[in-house]
Amino acid sequence: MDRVILAKPEVQADRKFFEQLSDAVRSAPRNLAEGFGRFGRREFAHFTSIARSSLQEVQNHLIDASDRQLTTEPEHRALWELSEEALACTTGLLKSLNRRDRG
């Protein structure tokens, strides 16, 4: 997902936006990996929750990019759909971890 938008010269020109989006995109898988490497479901759930928040941050950046016309409508739609899928999967994992923890 990040390659499409982060490779654009107009996005790269705005260093702060570029770095914030880049970090948010990479944060979700980093946190999932770290949580998976922990010893218990509670810790995994905690890091999964952070990953979910990072995906929501990505969505905020996608809205900002669209508002600033840094993406075309088809680019925005494709990136949004991908972010929604990632968010749904992460939310499902988090619900499963929390359900197991209660049971």
Q: Strand percentage, roughly?
A: under 5%
Number of domains: 1
**CATH superfamily label:** 23S rRNA-intervening sequence
- The general outline is elongated
**Span of the ends, CA to CA:** 36 Å
CATH architecture: Up-down Bundle
Strand count, sense and closure of the main sheet? none
Structural class: mainly alpha
Instruction: Name the average pLDDT.
Output: 93
Please give the count of helices: 5
The CATH topology annotation reads as de novo design (two linked rop proteins)
CATH class: Mainly Alpha
State the share of residues found in helices, binned by percent: over 70%
The count of β-strands is 0
Can you offer a commentary on this structure?
About 85% of the residues lie in helices and about 0% in strands. It is an all-alpha fold and about 100 residues long. The protein has a single domain, classed as de novo design (two linked rop proteins) (Up-down Bundle). α4 packs antiparallel against α5. The model has no long low-confidence stretch (mean pLDDT about 95).
Write the topology of this structure.
Layout lengths: L1 H5 L2 H5 L1 H22 L4 H27 L5 H30 L1
Helix pairs in contact: 3-4, 4-5
